[in-house]
Amino acid sequence: GTNTVDSFLNYDASYVNVIPKAFHETTSYDLENINRLGIVPPSKHDHEILKWDEFYTEDSPDKVYLSTDFDRAAYYARHAAELYKKKKIKTKPVVIQIDNLPTDRIVADDDFKSNMSMIQLLAAMQSGKQVDSNSYLKSIRSTSQFGYKGRIPASMFTKIHEL
Asked: 109 near 147, Cβ under 8 Å?
């Protein structure tokens, strides 16, 4: 018919100016600090759990990570809660929702840039072109994940989902 994807979804899925719905994973243990400070890059705090087992690459210290997929964020929130559980800290997974996140500080997810070569290969095969691994749009379209350079203040939070 005459419907476009955007009209079907009831939001702009181009991701050019804003990310209509973004989700960040965390835990109830960290929520008080996050509500006070915002979502803060790993280089700005010393929470070992939030450094995801020292997995961050050199490109990561000044970014926070989000997804356009609620279920993916929920998976990572559960993972963080399990890491705390191993340290005998009781907590629950939480997903923070941010609506209409401006794209001026959005960057490609580190996994897409480095560890997701198979996803990049599949994207290249579909388009017939080499994939720009620095493209946040390609990162979102291929993995639903992206980075945000800097802090996201709590005033931007739309909803807190306790799992």
From this structure: yes
Q: Are 94 and 161 in contact (CB under 8 A)?
A: yes
Check: CB of residue 142 under 8 Å from CB of residue 116: yes
Amino acid at 87: K
Token pair recorded at residue 40: 């803060």
Residue 131 structure tokens: 């994939």
The pLDDT score that the predictor gives to residue 12 is 73
State how far the Cα of 25 lies from the Cα of 76, in Å rounded to an integer.
6
Q: For the chain, what is the mean pLDDT?
A: 83
Which tokens sit at 153?
Answer: 């203040």
Asked if 121 and 128 count as a contact pair (C-beta separation under 8 A), the reply is: no
- Beta strand 63-67 with 93-102 is unpaired
Residue 122 CA, distance from chain mean position? 21
Distance CA 144, CA 72 (A): 8
pLDDT digit string, tens, across residues 59-105: 577 889 999 999 999 999 999 999 899 999 999 999 999 999 999 99
The order of strands in the sheet holding 18-27 is 106-108, 145-149, 63-67, 18-27, 93-102, 159-162
